[in-house]
Design goal:
Helix content is 32%, strand content 13%. The protein has seven helices and seven strands, in the order ααβαβαββαββαβα.
């Protein structure tokens, strides 16, 4: 029967679409990268999504985050994402967690429930914990490496973490994962050297913080505030979603 996923079914087939209805994907981090991943997974017919992020939409998110609009500023990102996903697919199951994922909060999640895990968070400690939890549970995971301070969306590619180069975040992850005995990790990373952001106090969050009331982790607490744009994080998020669907569908590289 004709439905919102008919054009996808033409490519994947009816049985694969029924299979996607039964899978559960956890997306950790619903920002510039993770937001577009959620969007694409919902539009691909994934049946259940777990959305994990404690942040609220900020005015400065509007330049790059799909759930960030004037009308959503101040709302929790997971709540906005849930509403949009259900507007795309009325049958989708959404589980939301207003949680900042760290080793301390990891106990809230049972990774054996998931068919796939997406790491779109910013902190190294959180990323390492996600990878270790997925490894223990035997669940596939894909991680986003650095997307900030980049201008070339064509420089991103999919690789194993030990095949990466250039990206400073990937370098740290390689070192830490090797110490932990993790032998492989699928990542999306850029071969572009990061730009040095211009420190303009007139537009700096350091001097003009506009985080919504109730925000626990403000930008002013970060060591560095990266520059970003509309076309780099979105590409990373869509590449990740494509890899998830490809892997869950059993599609061969072509």
């Amino acid at each position: 029967m004709l439905n919102q996923f008919s054009r996808t079914e033409i490519l994947l087939g009816h049985e694969t679409m029924k299979q996607l209805e039964k899978v559960r994907v956890a997306v950790f981090g619903i920002g510039g990268v993770g937001g577009y991943t959620v969007e694409a997974l919902a539009r691909s017919g994934v049946g259940t999504l777990d959305l994990i992020d404690d942040d609220r939409v900020c005015l400065t998110n509007i330049n790059r985050q799909i759930f960030a609009l004037r009308s959503t500023v101040g709302k929790y990102k997971v709540d906005v994402a849930e509403a949009r996903a259900k507007d795309i697919n009325q049958n989708i199951q959404i589980n939301t967690y207003r949680t900042f994922y760290t080793p301390e909060t990891a106990g809230q999640f049972d990774f054996t429930q998931y068919d796939y895990v997406v790491d779109a968070i910013d902190t190294i400690t959180g990323k390492l914990e996600l990878v270790e939890q997925a490894e223990r549970a035997g669940i596939p995971i894909i991680s986003a490496m650095g997307a900030g301070n980049k201008m070339d969306p064509t420089a991103f590619c999919v690789a194993d973490i030990y095949e990466t180069s250039v990206c400073p975040l990937a370098r740290v992850m390689r070192h830490e994962l090797r110490k932990r005995g993790i032998k492989r990790l699928k990542v999306v990373y850029s071969q572009e050297k990061p730009m040095e952001p211009v420190e303009d106090m007139a537009i700096s969050c350091r001097n003009h913080c506009i985080c919504p009331p109730g925000t626990v982790r403000k930008c002013t607490q970060r060591r560095a505030i990266p520059g970003s744009n509309a076309f780099v994080p979105s590409v990373v998020g869509l590449i990740i979603a494509g890899e998830v669907i490809r892997d869950l569908s059993g599609l061969e590289e072509g």
